[in-house]
Design a protein that fits this description.
four-stranded antiparallel beta sheet; 10 strands; alpha+beta; elongated
Length: about 280
Amino acid sequence: MPELPEVETVMRGLTPRLEGRILAHVEARRPDLRWPLPDGFAGRLTGRRVVGLRRRAKYILVDLDDGACWMIHLGMSGRMLLSNGGDPAFEKHDHVVLRTDEGWWLRFNDARRFGMMDLWPTADVENHRLLAGIGPEPLGNAFSATALETALEGRQTAIKAALLDQRVVAGIGNIYACEALHRSGIAPKRLALNVRGARADALVSAIGAVLTDAIAAGGSSLRDHRQTSGELGYFQHTFGVYDREGQPCPKEGCRGTVQRIVQTGRSTFYCPSCQR
């Protein structure tokens, strides 16, 4: 499932080609993705000018000139692919396609159809059922050690599981939770309520650094993620612990070996020597 860096990378790739442009042609090539598309979806998008693009958690939000917000979730295998020139050769899983007034084509390709799209009033989009209650953005000013301590107060669950709870912090998934915990030296099984003080400071700093580095690398491409150009992301080449079971811990001076455990049904990778 794409996490914050992958979604941010896609959003940034779309922005120069969509912002300020008119959606001259929109075609929904099937009536549903994970859920049915909104009634009149293609017609409601056609002719609209894109005011701006932004990301909230793992969702891309496209604000339109009629006060509607086009919400996009990539799901497990969704790709937003841009091309210029003549009509592209559409593929089997190109479920939504559009052309801007500048001649750029955008194809939403989703083999597994776990992605979703919706239209919602921009002024009320934070109250959409998929966004309501989501925690602060980890790269925003509202996310701090104090905010993290407050969100973790009284939580008896492991810190790794807590980081995957979108009510605690937005957009973090399995990969970046593992990487941030490793960088901060915090064991994934440590009780969330005990991540306070210096540990909370270190974790907030590590989360910001990991996400920033991943965005700069275009995200992580383990299976399906592609940038809007079709290129892979490259952050997987610099993983510290994720998917590195049995390999030496890369931290300088640490002689530990990366181990894998299962937490809440997900693989957790960590170094038992330097993560406490």
